[in-house]
Each structure stands twice: as structure tokens, then as C-alpha cells.
Automatic annotation (TrEMBL):
PANTHER family recorded: JTB PROTEIN-RELATED, PROTEIN JTB
Record-given protein name: Protein JTB
InterPro entries found in the cross-reference section: JTB
Signal peptide: 1-25
Keyword Membrane (UniProt): yes
GO CC, alphabetical: cytoplasm; membrane; midbody; spindle
Biological process terms in GO annotation: mitotic cytokinesis
Listed Pfam families: JTB (PF05439)
Transmembrane regions: 108-128
Top-level taxon of the source organism: Eukaryota
This protein's UniProt keywords: Membrane, Signal, Transmembrane, Transmembrane helix
Length: 149
């Protein structure tokens, strides 16, 4: 009699645990913290974050300084700290940001799906090989005893 252990519940529990922990870490206060108002080098204006991080267009990546570092932009709202009559520089509307939430989520799910596929293939090969070796051992044992298989 052969005892078989089913790894499927353990695998599913592990995937659910990892998915839940990642979703929880995305909602932590550090991930949702607001950006403090930023002072420019001349202290003539201060800015605060207004929108979500978005992917820059190809043209913006080539022409705009805020898109060159990360390839992403985030809308900001800026106000002058002083009288605007003597200031000639325009207020910025965007700033660079490191990660776009929907792109990172898509990459994460792509990673999970690829790992699940690889895991299923590995379990399939393992099961096939295990059955093949068990069959060979059974035939050898039957041959020793003299039973026809």
C-alpha cells in the first residue's frame, strides 16, 4: 500500500498568505503617508502632492526633467510664499515619483502567475516521476515473488 501526500492545500495556503501579506503592506501608513510641503532652493514657493503617480508619455520622458529620473510623474500644487510681482519663474505642475501603483500591482500578479505555473509544472513532473519509479519498483518486486503484472 502506498501512502500519498497531497501538497495542494499547503501550496494554496502559502499563496493566499503571501497575497494577503502583500496587500496589507500596500495599505500601511508609511505607504499612504502624505508628502510634506517641499521648499524650493530659493524658498519662493511651496508645493504639496495632489494626484497619484502616473506613467510619463514617451515625449515627456525625453523633454521634461521630472520624467527623466523615474519615467513617472505626480501632479503637485504649488503656491508662492512671497509677493508674486518680482518672481519670474513658473510654478511646477508635476514632480518625479518612483512607482506607479497599477504598474507595480500588474508586475506583482505577473510574478505570482509565473511562479504558480512553474510550481504546477514542477509538481506535475514530480508526480509523473514518482508514479513511474513506484511502478518500476512494483514490477521488480512482483517479478521476484513470481506474480504476473
Amino acid at each position: 500500500m502506498q501512502v500519498r501526500f497531497n501538497y495542494t492545500p499547503i501550496f494554496l495556503a502559502l499563496v493566499l498568505l503571501l497575497t494577503a501579506s502583500t496587500a496589507q503592506s500596500a495599505n500601511t501608513p508609511s505607504a499612504l503617508r502624505s508628502i510634506n510641503p517641499r521648499q524650493s532652493p530659493t524658498d519662493s514657493y511651496s508645493c504639496s502632492v495632489v494626484g497619484q503617480c502616473e506613467v510619463c508619455t514617451d515625449l515627456e520622458k525625453k523633454t521634461q526633467p521630472y520624467c527623466k529620473e523615474f519615467g513617472n510623474k505626480q501632479r503637485i500644487s504649488c503656491q508662492y510664499n512671497k509677493d508674486v510681482s518680482d518672481i519670474s519663474e513658473p510654478l511646477p505642475m508635476f514632480r518625479g515619483c518612483p512607482r506607479v501603483q497599477w504598474v507595480e500591482r500588474a508586475r506583482y500578479y505577473q510574478f505570482v502567475v509565473i511562479n504558480v505555473i512553474i510550481s504546477l509544472l514542477a509538481v506535475g513532473v514530480f508526480s509523473w516521476r514518482h508514479r513511474k519509479l513506484a511502478g518500476e519498483q512494483y514490477r521488480k518486486m512482483a517479478q521476484r515473488i513470481g506474480i504476473s503484472v
